[in-house]
Specification:
Layout (H helix, E strand, L loop, with lengths): L1 H20 L1 H14 L7 H10 L5 H35 L27
Helix pairs in contact: 2-3
GO molecular function: transcription coactivator activity
Protein name: c-Myc-binding protein
GO cellular component, one term: nucleus
């Protein structure tokens, strides 16, 4: 009798493992969707594999997305450098404190354009 309990307990343990990991739920959903198909697919195994894999990103897709992330990070860094360089160039042309760009915030008057002061 002890030999009968051991395989059953292994089977029950494996079943619990499949249920906890979500395998049973995924398999059930795919089987139900296959059952509900109006026309049976020519290759049921292929249908099954496609449906199972639909929620899991494929390796090629993951690699492609990782490359895209790396490219976007490089582009972002380049744009940040360009932005800093342009800010420095802008500072060369602005009076101290950037008053010529902001209305009413400079020593030259409320609009920063009265009488052409500092434009020579």
């Amino acid at each position: 009798m002890a030999t009968n309990l051991k395989p059953e307990s292994k089977r029950d343990e494996f079943k619990r493992y499949l249920e906890k990991s979500g395998v049973m739920d995924s398999l059930t959903k795919v089987l139900v969707s296959l059952y509900e198909e109006p026309e049976r697919p020519g290759n049921a195994v292929e249908y099954f594999l496609e449906r199972l894999a639909s929620g899991v990103p494929m390796k090629a897709e993951m690699e492609s997305l990782q490359l895209e992330i790396n490219d976007l990070r490089k582009k972002s860094a380049q744009l940040e450098e360009e932005n800093e360089a342009l800010k420095k160039k802008l500072e060369q042309f602005e009076p101290s404190g950037g008053s010529s760009m902001s209305p009413g915030g400079g020593e030259e008057g409320p609009s920063g354009s009265e009488g052409g002061v500092g434009e020579e």
